[in-house]
Amino acid sequence: MLIVMQAQATEEQIRRVCDKVESLGYRAHSMPGAQRTAIGITGNKGEVESGTLEEMPGVQEVIRVSKPYKLVSRDVKPDNSVIKFPGSPVTIGGADLVIMAGPCGIESREQAFATAEPLARAGAQFFRGGAYKPRTSPYSFQGMGEDGLKIMAEVRDRFGLLIVTEAVDYESLDLVEKYADMIQIGARNMQNFSLLKRAGRARKPVLLKRGIAATLEEFLMAAEYIMSEGNYNVVLCERGVRTFADHTRNTLDLSVVPAVQRLSHLPIVVDPSHGTGKRNKVTPLSRAAVAVGADGLIIEVHHDPDRALSDGMQSLYPEQFDALMVQVRQIAAVLGRNVAEAGTPVPATVSK
Ligand code: PEP
Ligand code: MN
């Protein structure tokens, strides 16, 4: 159920409607939009008795939402969501494309700094890197844990990059929420519903990666889990799905970008690194992702990919990332969107 408020409804009227919804035993989600505020109702088992709500001052109409997802839907919020980061000019979902880049995993302070410096210089906004790595083998590098998060926080201070990193369980989510600017939920955890709910109670935006074999509806329902707990700052990420094709690690499903944009107001970024698993395919698919209308890219880059402890085969060399940025900047311009210029001031010496 969705309550659409009149364009001129006052804050007080919106608050009264929310209070009324809560007094009926449901949860009210007030979603301000460009034209009007809508209030999503969740927690109802069946039809909500809409009569009294319809008569309240400031209410335009009460409508039934037939789709299984409600808060992620454009029915609730027709205009695109733009995610903001306190104290930073960076946004996701507006005219500026967001570029997130960094190694698969944080391996040492030297590696993180040596990789971050050229990324900041090339115009990236976010430094990515896992401190908790969900690996297929228990014998593979599992990440540095909290020490890795501390290194990322230092990278933020040194280079002015925002930090996005994965949480794999409750314990790591507490720490990621403390150190990072954005909490990544990985493909393997897209349907870890208790983790999604915990992310929904976090105070930081969430980057939600599409599950390895998730349909569009399952992907949107995972975002709905997060939003239903009150965290509306969700960015979706297409990272490839499992198919019969074996020329790439996964099949990057770029058609999901316009499909998501039709149904949802949430931003969507593309990860061509996990989407292809091959370094030589990352730049072409990055170009395609920007052309298809993605709100940004998340790219694995390593200062020495041949010695990376994870995903070296799909990690770009910093020079390749520079070239990628030059290309996607031109493609973005065709669509009236911007990729930040190279030349972000970076202090001259990198402290060890
Ligand atoms: C990652 O971003 O390093 C990662 C593990 O991604 P995914 O969850 O998409 O496999
Ligand atoms: Mn990786």
Detailed description of the structure:
This protein has 352 residues and is of the alpha/beta class. It has 2 domains: 2-63, Alpha-Beta Plaits, CATH 3.30.70; 83-339, Aldolase class I (TIM Barrel). 34% of the residues lie in helices and 17% in strands. It contains 11 helices and 14 strands. It has helices at 11-23, 51-54, 109-122, 146-159, 170-179, 193-200, 216-228, 256-263, 272-276, 279-292, 318-334; strands at 2-5, 27-32, 37-42, 59-63, 83-84, 91-92, 98-102, 126-128, 162-166, 182-185, 206-209, 234-238, 268-270, 296-300. An 8-stranded parallel beta sheet has the order 13-12-11-10-9-8-7-14. It has a 4-stranded antiparallel beta sheet with strand order 2-3-1-4, with helices on one face. The longest helix is centred in the C-terminal third of the chain and has 17 residues, at 318-334. The protein is globular, with a radius of gyration of 21 Å. It binds phosphoenolpyruvate and manganese (II) ion. Manganese (II) ion binds at residues 104, 274, 300, 310-311.
